[in-house]
Amino acid sequence: MPARPMVTAAVMLAANALALLAPPAHGQQQLKRVEITGSAIKRVEATGPVPVDVYTRREIERTGATTISELVKNLSVFDIDDQGELTNNSPEASGASSLQIRGLSERNVLVLLNGRRLPVNALTDVNEGGAVDVNLIPLSAIERIEILKDGGSAIYGADAVAGVINFITRRNYTGAEARAGYGISSRGDAKETSAGVIAGFGDYEGQGFNLLAVLDRFKRDPLLRADRAITSSANWTRFDGGNGADGRSVFHPVGNIIDPTLGQVRPCPAEDLPLDPDGLCLFDFNRTLLPSINGADRWSAMLIGSLNVGIGRAFAEATYSRSEDEFAGHPAPGFVVDAMGRTLLARFTQAGPRISDRKASLTQLVAGMEGSAGPIDWDFAVGEGTSRVTNNDTNWIATDRFLAAVANGTIDPTSDANPQAAVDALRLLPTRRGKSVLRFVNTKVTGQLAPLPGGSLAYAVGVQFDRESLSDRPDADQQAGNVFGSIAQGAVDASRKHAAMFGELSIPFLKSIESQVALRYDRYSGDTSRTSPKVALKYQPVNAFALRGSYSESFLVPSLKQLYGGQSQGGETTDDPTICGAFPGHPLAASCTGFPYLLVGGSNPNLEPETGKTYGLGFIVEPVPQLALGLDLFRINKRDEIGVLTAEAAAARGNVATTPLGEAQVFVLNQNIAQTKVEGLDLDLRLSVGETLLGRMRVRNAFTYYTKNRKQFEPGGPFFEFNATFLLPRWRNAIQVNFENGPWSTTFLGRTTSGMRDSDQPSGSVENANARKIDAYDEIDVTVQYTGISALTLAGGVKNLFDRMPPYSNEATQGQYGSLGFPWIYSPRGRFFFVSASYAFR
Question: What's the pLDDT tens digit per position in 600-659?
Fold first, then answer.
């Protein structure tokens, strides 16, 4: 193991040693009846037949996180995907963050707010199809987070293949609290400011009502690629012992000529010499303008009201979040044919940097009632969630007018001295608007049927109705592919209805044996339906030990975007001989160095639902009250999974074409490509002890390890192992060590990710075997809180204490993975200082 990743392991060992030396803490836990994610039945014990991780508000505060996407980096079960925060040239992904679990796509995890679904992001990638943008969830309102690490098909939806994350807000809060925070990197950039107010009026238990209001504000300055060594140049030959990739672009402002001879219209600048093996001048897009971390400007508000109406609690929730971001990119690249008949790889700088203004919002309105009638508990809710995203672009140009102007000599694409009127005549103001709406009605009844030796036979039954609609409307030029250098963007305007009913039984056969049995029936528009079962069992022969297992079936229908989203294409570059070899007549294919091609993806209205089976088996051991250890094995088998072939596989099949301008195209449309098998384990260790030399100590360590991540790309074909390949590390570890000493609280957070092969090709392939290894990576944060002044809480700390920079990756120099030079599961921010203060008004 490399030296740096051993730091986190050392912290954990030291924490365990202190725990063993400390005197035992005495006390008893008070058990209360609660409803936990994963079951619709309230229970006395929080630990049930399926694994659920709960993170309290106190634990969340100790991370120092200011956004949801930053918070989940401290939870090992999540597959970190910062593409939306690190990518600024995607009309769908930029500025948004989604969550992934179990090495599966974001569509396989169900995101809930107070147990209810949220609408998917209005502009989403047609390949993935739709996920909730968690950046728009107000963090200040969150009381706790519950993560069901098991298929939740029967209770929440058959589409919860990999699990459920439930953000649960505060309730019945009285008083007011204001907070403010500030953070900045050790290099004086990437500044963050945050502020929030929460206020509650009325005591529901005593006065019969409560009104809670939350307001959040977050702003972040962008971090430029030029300001970090690893991203300062797209020529990464300075890494990997001089063997790093040269990812600079062949689309250079001087105009590289590829037909009939190689060369340049204008001399290559000295900073871009020497020429590449094909004699082309290479443009270093990382040297200026582009950010490695996007800026952010977000605010959110939430209003929750509760009223005792005699027969129960009437409630209403209103959430509104808004994000405004600006993304800057270099002038558009593309192929042009000039007045002399030469084909140029152009980048028309006189048009100016491309600017995209993105405005996104989330509105969630819910109203309902809940109460009891004798032995029966009931609740009813109706709601509507709406996601809106608008992209307004400037400094883009019309493809048809630009190509015509270059061809007739009106515009010289290699010059900045063209008549301004001629340049302005080319300009477009592309606009793309998306709207995703989810309307729902949910009702549920729970109660007890009969006494059993181990307790009461409890039940829950419920019905759900919802209507989902998606409108994604690029303007006419975007749909026609008439925006030079941009992808052709498909429109979609579709909707569907969905109805479901479920039933659940909690069967305590004996004091030591409890079973959960559930069944769900889903029906979608178009006569698509399925029944999905779930069975779980918990065996606890003694108080200190429990064994549990589960089985569930999943049913994931294609998203509206995957079905009806049209086709889109984006520019990529590659050194892969399989892709280059599919274009034997292309002038740049022979050297296969930075070969440019268009990756064409899109929807497929003939897609079928994905199906799957999830298995879980584990145990919990608590030998003493201060120590709890949980180990859970998981296995997910998915069939008919929707996905796309890799560019290499598509090229090998001959799914290629060449445009009239000589642009190479590789087609990777959505299809039910076959199967995925994921296996692994979760380990959760918790220590709660008495006094140590540094104060009362608590330790929580979460470890996730994958043993398999196998994919089959065609029915009857072989399975390929992708575990420990690019963006799929074999394991993650997250540890939180907290010391309480009077008014002082000190928390150490450590995150470690295993190394992986620097290849997105499967194990056993030639490319994987010859690929370098990306080193393991770790970070440690320190947070200190002080509460010694009445009503005031002060906090400060350092994130990434040892100023770790992400490891270099050859694969991450390709446009498909952001052209950052490192895997986007990491951040190039480096050491980051932060302070915050909150004051409670009582």
Answer: 888 888 899 999 999 999 999 999 989 999 999 999 999 998 877 778 888 988 989 998
What residue type is assigned to position 427 of the chain? Answer: R
Residues 412, 417, 421: CA angle, nearest 5 degrees: 85
Chain-centre distance of CA 453, in angstroms?
45
- Among residues 257, 238, 250, which one has the least CA distance to residue 572? 250
Residues 6+ apart with CB under 8 A from 488: 478, 479, 480, 481, 567, 568, 569
* β-sheet bridge partners, residue 571: 598
Write out 548-592 in H/E/C secondary structure. Answer: EEEEEEEEECCCHHHHHCCEEEEEEEECCHHHHHCCCCCCCCCCC
Give residue limits of the domains in the chain. Answer: 6-841
* Fold of domain 6-841: Maltoporin; Chain A (2.40.170)
Q: Which two tokens stand for residue 358?
A: 């993105």
Task: Give the pTM.
Answer: 0.87
Determine phi and psi for 650, rounding to 5 degrees.
-65, -40
Core vs surface per residue 314-352: b (16+ CB within 10 A) or e: bbbbbbbbbbbbebbbbbbbbbbbbeeebbbbbbbbbbe
**What one-character DSSP code corresponds to residue 127?**
T
Q: How far apart are CA 286 and CA 238, in angstroms?
A: 14
What pLDDT digit, counting tens, does each position of 57-110 carry? 888 888 888 888 888 888 888 887 666 677 665 555 567 788 889 888 888 899
